[in-house]
Design a protein that fits this description.
mainly beta, Immunoglobulin-like, five-stranded antiparallel beta sheet, elongated, disordered C terminus, SIGLEC
Amino acid sequence: MVQAHQDSCEEGTTKPVSPQETEKIWHGSSDPQKVLQLHHQEQTTAQTGLCAVIPCSFTHPDDYIASIAIWLKCPNAHCSFKVKNDSIFHSEKSSIAQEGYRSRVALLETDLKKNNCSVIINDITKTDAGDYKLRLSGKLNTLTQKPSVLTPPLTEGEPATLTCTAPGICSGTPPNITWTWRGTGDNITDVTTTHFSTLTFTPSAEHHTTKVSCQVTFKGNITTEETVTLNVTHVKEPKISGSNTVREGDTLNLTCSVDSYPPPSITWSKNGTTAMQQNNSGLAALTISKLTREHAGEYVCKAQHLNRTLTASIVVTVMCECKQHCTHLTEKSLKHVYFKLSMIYLPPLSLVRPSCDSQCFWVCHPGKGHDLCVCQPGGSLTSQRLA
C-alpha cells in the first residue's frame, strides 16, 4: 500500500505475494527450486508532489526467462484486478497502462535479466494511495544444450578464428547467432552461415583473459549461449624494480617481473656467473642482506619464455660504510689541498675513504661534520658538503 498526504508521510504497506500466488506465477509448481520468488519491502511512504519508489527484486530458476513486468493498482480490498483496467505500467505495451499513470510510472531498471522489478511513481497525489501488485510474465527456456565454441591456440600478432556451432544441427529454421565481445573491437570480422558462425581477429596481449560469448537464438525466442576465456600467448620485456644504490651493510632488494602467458622461467645472475635465484611464476625477487663492496656489479635478469630468451640488467653500486676513525695527515701532505680548502677548514684535518673509489675521501674536521673531497683530473680538488 502507498499512502500519500500533503502535510506528512504516513506509513503504508505493500502486500507480499502469497504462496498460492507464487505458485500461479510459476505454473502451479510446488517445487521450491522452481518457484519464482518476489522480494520487496512491506511499507512505502511518500509526500504529495514528490515521487515514491517501491523496491522490488526477484529470483528464478535458471531455465526461466522473465520478459514482461506489469504493475497494477488494486481496485478493491480483495485486489481482484484486471490487467486491461488496472495496469499502471506495462513493460511491453505502454498503452495498456491507465492514462493517469502512463507518463508517471517507470521501472528503475529496464533490463529484467538483472532481476530488478523496482518501480518509481512520480508526481504523487492522494489518489495514488492504495495497494499495488506486480505481475511478471516469462517463459521456460527448456533448451539445456549450449553452443560449441572452438578456440584455436592464440598467439599475439597472429590472426585467429573462433568458431561457434549451434546445438542440434537440424533442417529447420536457422538460428540467429551473435557474438558478445568484452574487449577491444578493432579488426574483428564475424561471418554466420546457417548453424555456424566465425569470429576472426588478431590477438594481442590486451586480449588475454578477455571473455567472448556466443549466443544462439532459435525460433520462439529460445536462447542459449556459451562463454569462453581467451588465453593469448605473449611476452613483454622484463622490468627490474628496486634501488640499485645501497650502503654497505644494508639489504639489496630487486624484483624482476615479466608480463607473459604462459609464465616464463626467470633467473638472476651477477657478472655472468651461475644462477643466483630462479622462479617460474613470472616474478622473481633478489634479496641480499649485509651488503659488502664485493656485491657491487651488474645483475642480469633472464626470462626464458617458450623458445625466446629476454634479458634486462641493472648495475648495483655499494656505498662503503664510513669508518669512525680518520687517517691523520701531516701539514706537508695536506699542502696541496690548502689552496682550495684553507678558507673553509682549519687544522687539524684528516681524510677517510667514503666509498670503494680510492680517489675519494671524507675531509674530517672535529665539530664541523664531514665534507666530501673529490680528486679531479690534473690533481685539482672540489668540495661539497653532505647533509
